[in-house]
Fold this protein.
Amino acid sequence: MNELASDSHPSSSAGSQKPAGSRAGSRKALAILGSTGSVGEQTLAVALAEPERFSVVALAAGRNIEKLAEQVRVFRPALVSVAEPAGAAALRDALGSVDVEIVVGAEGLDAVASHPADLVVSSLVGAVGLAPTLAAIRAGRDVALANKEVMVMAGALVLREVQKHDVALLPVDSEHSAIFQALAGQRAEDVARLILTASGGPFRTWTSEQIAEATIEQALDHPNWDMGPKITIDSATLMNKGLEVIEARWLFDTQPDCIDVVVHPQSIIHSLVEFKDSSVIAQLGLPDMRVPIVVALAHPERIALDVPRLDLAAIGRLDFEVPDRKRFPCLDLAYEALGLSEAAPAVVNAANEIAVSAFLAGQIRFTQIAETNGAVLNLHASRIGDAQTGADGGSGRLRDLDDVLEADAWSRACARDWLAASA
Amino acid sequence: MNELASDSHPSSSAGSQKPAGSRAGSRKALAILGSTGSVGEQTLAVALAEPERFSVVALAAGRNIEKLAEQVRVFRPALVSVAEPAGAAALRDALGSVDVEIVVGAEGLDAVASHPADLVVSSLVGAVGLAPTLAAIRAGRDVALANKEVMVMAGALVLREVQKHDVALLPVDSEHSAIFQALAGQRAEDVARLILTASGGPFRTWTSEQIAEATIEQALDHPNWDMGPKITIDSATLMNKGLEVIEARWLFDTQPDCIDVVVHPQSIIHSLVEFKDSSVIAQLGLPDMRVPIVVALAHPERIALDVPRLDLAAIGRLDFEVPDRKRFPCLDLAYEALGLSEAAPAVVNAANEIAVSAFLAGQIRFTQIAETNGAVLNLHASRIGDAQTGADGGSGRLRDLDDVLEADAWSRACARDWLAASA
């Protein structure tokens, strides 16, 4: 915990952004979905270092019962959720007489998400985080959002629920946190453009021919960030940046043609916002996930964090270039999806998951990832057309979570079929 | 006026910074000190393009009666001030039956400064702007500050008056406007460091030996900004950045050891603020004085401005380096002044004006500018020491404007004596 210096300024609201449950004189009560994952653990580290600021009232984890039991002993939440009944029994055994309610499965996640709290940290990985995040929003909770799938798969639906329930979504990833911070104290109608920075990935300087021959090892060699294999491949295809464009579109309720991407290999400027007077506000820093986590938890305040400081003179130079949409077609597929339908982002995301898995399994070439995504998106476009002319298939509209999951499942099946046919 | 697109969003307050006289549904009334100068004219261009946002209620100019008469005809202020009685008579002749009160001299400036208005634009050049700017603050007016001398010469005094009368100071220069914008929506106690960027001037890559032989023409050849000769020389010595450090210390009530300077030759990042969680917020843009003017006038809103947009990919790279305090000793002299006394910034500023004039007149070498400034600052330090031990001379404290003007006059005399003695 020594990275967090203690600091206990009184609460105060800042910015035109909605304050996230900050109440003067009281601690911010946290419910954490995915407490044993990386973001969950870092959130708890902040809470431990800042006991005057935060209390932990509910935790949800999956199968890591040992770690969860330790967290319950330290933070004493009122409610805790695990994936399966066997896990619940094991947790009860491990905790002995500790007074905590243990709940299970999808219902357990919903219970943690809607437990009385000032802020729900949504840090489950994958589609399993969708329902509880929606439950938190519908319960009127502000949400610190670390789960990419929520806005990628269900952005249109989530945005409507956020607006309906007037809650704040606080992004927990470096690019969207940068935009969120650049928007502080500004009016939405003064924004001209959001500019996401992209490292460009390991193939930034490669030719199309070289990229076509890229191996798994080469694709996994990311220059700036140490991440899991799926997201590292997404960085190499620029699909990751495309998915971030989709997230930005819904997180900030911004039209796709007002969202740009600039390649910035050093990843020091985390993203920028251009305003209508031509002023550009950017957030910069060394790549460190602790920063966006603490920014979201502390908003609208800030917490002192003992991490290395940005030294621009030591870094020396920052480079920028236009992303090459020909060598990296996945970026345009994301914009295309935003133009197609509310469901199309879920479609391209699901196709991409299947394609990346196939690439990581050695079944397809690197460039077939983009080909798969594009092919499935085309099939989705036809399906919407069929639906409009009275034929079968989805309308492309996301009325509720079922529509999201249907689009996801349809796309996975499509992608598998397409890969089988082209093998 | 075609650089200003029309825009009339309803007023609303934003940010934790004090809104500058913005009242929903009413126009912002402007009083302009120095209306015929560059910033004054650009301010009036904004007012002309945005008649739903701004009214012009009072103007002060010097001797450019023809231009002032035209401004009065267009904007119909209630009050106008000129430097001399002869100018007042000429203005009355030129205006015929136009209904406007005409006032004269120092009293006239004070009358314009304290005329009922929502925002006073302080854009006189030099020490003549000090008294009316203080008058505006004491009358409770928010001030858009384009006059560098106000905070350089009288910063400690002005800061006390600003706090006492609870008014907003809105900086009108690219570096301080950048910091002001980076602070929007943030709490003062969360700020760790202000980082001013410096182009480095024309001698950035020169050796000490080359700098010692620099000609007037070489010193006047600024890489990024087209400015007057005095400030261009100040950019070459880095005294300009030192004076900006002094301004930042008082504008943002920040201790000198929390103000840094980084050399950034492209002048695209206009300045940055580091927060205690290590996040850095920066404002970027192409160099264009219209932007900080419009930012100050519109605060807390923004006005659409049809100027070239920043295109980072087209610029390609941004460079940063540590300022060389040996080759450019004026930067440290500014910090030294802030540590010496409240009056020392006025002292180093006045010495610098004398030295730069002597350099531009071909009387001294380039490196003698810094030598003069340093010598006079040393004499000031001795004088404070003498005052503390009961001998004559200033205490170094700025109780009122007289103390500022005394320090300024004393320093000019000192600098002239020193230059004469070393000739």
